[in-house]
Design goal:
With 219 residues, the protein is α+β, with helices and mostly antiparallel strands. It has seven helices and four strands; from the N terminus they run αααβααβαββα. Strands 1-2-4-3 form a four-stranded antiparallel beta sheet. Bound molecules: zinc ion.
Amino acid sequence: MTVVGAAIAVVGVLSSCSSKEASTAPPSFAKPPASASPEGTRCVAPPHPPGEDPGPLRDSPTGSGRASSGVADGRLPDGVEPFDDRYPALTRLDPALLGALREAARAAGRDDVTIHVNSGWRSSAYQRRLLDEADSTYGGGDDAARWVAGVGTSPHVSGDAVDVGDAGATTWLSEHGAAYGLCQVYANEPWHYELRPHASSRGCPAMYLDPTHDPRMQQ
Ligand SMILES: [Zn+2]
């Protein structure tokens, strides 16, 4: 059992996730408005107090009466760890990604670091909501696209991405994530991780500056 862990720890040193590219993000995107945190997730401005029961989640932090996107659409309350099987945001992830995340979370826990999941799988309807909110905040176009992918291209909709927090977790993953195949993909999103199975042996691929540079988003 521990042999695997030891091997993983060794290859983890080879991680290249901590690319210097992260420090080259345009200053204007360093602090997105709290009203529209990147990708619409709660990485920046949690609308619910930590530990609050998910209950009947409202569709927005202000509880507007628009069509709701709830737990079934992939919303998560604060403080959810990768081991929680109650949420479609987790259970509808690619099983390999979820397995890697759980393994990493156990290892992080041994370092007294807790990995929370702020967003995982999202329904198309939820992703569209996030896109609409970003469009109204950024006026659409490239500015919105830097933060929220389209419904047809978002790796969250296909269950292939997770947004993690808090800062301690993202720091831990930037150092150790590659050993588990977990890689930061966008320099402007230190919380967004996807599975790159070869990362454990080769390190993570170079990051894109932001999603608009990702060929997958050009479809
Ligand atoms: Zn993300």
